Amino acid sequence: MHEPPAHVGDQDVLDTVRATWLPDADTATHLPVGFGAHHWAASVAGERRLFVTLDGLGDRRSTDSLTAAYRAAATLAADGLEFVHASLPPLTVPFADDLLSATPWVDGHRPERLDREVTSTMLARLHATPPPEGTPRWRPLVGPDLAEDLACRARTTWDGGPFSARAQAALRSHLAAIDTWVTRYHRLAEEAASRPVVPTHGEPDVHNQLLTDRGTLLVDWESLQLAPAERDLRALDAGGPMTEMFDLEWRLDEVQQYAERFQQPHTGGADDLEAVEGLVEELERPDWHEPSDRP
């Protein structure tokens, strides 16, 4: 997130980091990176040592499910998947009604574009690994009543902030499409129930890759689940109905979260701007098609 959370200060994070992972830490600095979670660099005498993450809890994520995902990732790393950049023990710590975690700081940068060969190799190894005990299992994320819920929301007055009107107008103009997407998603989700499942990262694109001296690392394992392999393979533009389903799941979940965001009070800062642009992008991008059918 670009902006630090209003309810948490750097000193609060530093105190927890010292008590939990790094007693010698002398600074915790909020980092304007990522979207959906807050991050800090914990340092000792100017040297960055830990990458600290604050994950929010709610309907989509509980203390148990998040800790189980991080535990499974740590097991995968210990079992020989060197590209899994796992959290340090203790894997999660209660903090400001959410959960704090930390990984070792690694210098590196995000790839400019997806390296298909490297990504394919990492995913093939991940998917071939026996799942650690307790790995969270994928369940359909989109409710069958989502289209109706969004239509009801669109009929109310949105006045929470500077982007409310734009977000509501975009939603209203795509309600028919949303209804079609939800129906198609649940038809495919029924088929997914009979498919074999493997450990999946969930979001293995360039935003969660880090190029380092050790090679390419996959980071942010909070989304680790047992699921059909296409949950990851959509990042490689794979074909098939399961890829379509996970594309719809991503799209509809993003729309739902953004709609909820812009009904609420917001300031119009950098994070809000990114969110409203994300909403419009998900609503307006072309529907998924088999790779062979694309122009």
From TrEMBL:
Residues 271-281 have a biased composition (Acidic residues). Keywords: Transferase. GO terms for molecular function: transferase activity. The keyword 4Fe-4S does not apply. This is Spectinomycin phosphotransferase. The keyword Transferase applies. It comes from Nocardioides psychrotolerans. Residues 282-295 have a biased composition (Basic and acidic residues). Residues 265-295 are annotated as: Disordered.
